[in-house]
Amino acid sequence: MSIKGTNTTADYLEFDRTLNLSLKELSNGKYYKVAFFIIVGIYTGLRISDILRLKYKDFDSDTIDIIEQKTKKKRIITINQNVKDAYKKLLQRLKTHSNRNLNDDFVFTSQKSTVYKARSINRILKVLLQNKKNKDLHISSHSLRKTFGRRVWEQNQESEKALIYLSDIFNHSNTGITRRYLGIRKQEIADIYINL
After folding, report:
1. Is 0.85 topped by the overall pTM?
2. What is the widest separation between alpha-carbon atoms in the chain?
3. Domains of the chain, residue spans
4. Burial of 107 (0-12, 13-18, 19+ CB in 10 A)
């Protein structure tokens, strides 16, 4: 949460570390639903408003079809095996709590059986993901979207092609916006000074 009157930009996180912490929490932590939220976030790049609207039945096929709340654009996301495996772990954890059919229920509900609020998610994300090593990072649900973007960019050899795809996924009007969004532009400018 930022100080009133200031503009704080969320930072991206290191993908593998974030994934490993989430998998550990999903298996035996008390914030296992938020751990699954993190996994969905870093593998799909969805905004918090779209993730919180997901229902259990959305994970029953190989794709998630949504109309993005912010842009009103249709988006089809292929669910990869890592998300499917995490979903199975989530269902195993839930079996100890309930035997009822969950299909039409929202996935990301609190102990009070209400859909999490963004503020609660962001508070728990800081508990789960912030430590001494990254204490200066601004961590929020938007960090997961940026982590997804950085992962795609890095796995595609930091190519312009990856930025074009990400620009389309994020609904940015050009790759320059995507570069700034992912912190690439800032990094490249810093490198200019370092390499003089």
Report:
1. yes
2. 64
3. 15-135
4. buried
Q: What percent of the chain has pLDDT over 70?
A: 93
Residues 97 and 101: their CA atoms lie apart, in Å, by 12
Q: Which residues of 24-53 are buried (b: 16+ CB within 10 A; e: fewer)?
A: ebbeeeebbbbbbbbbbbbbbbbbbebbbb
Asked if residue 137 has pLDDT above 60, the reply is yes
Do residues 37 and 108 make contact, with C-beta atoms less than 8 angstroms apart?
A: yes
Question: What would you report as the CA-atom Rg of the chain, rounded to the nearest whole angstrom?
Answer: 17
CATH superfamily of the 15-135 domain: Intergrase catalytic core (1.10.443.10)
* Rounded average pLDDT over 6-14: 81
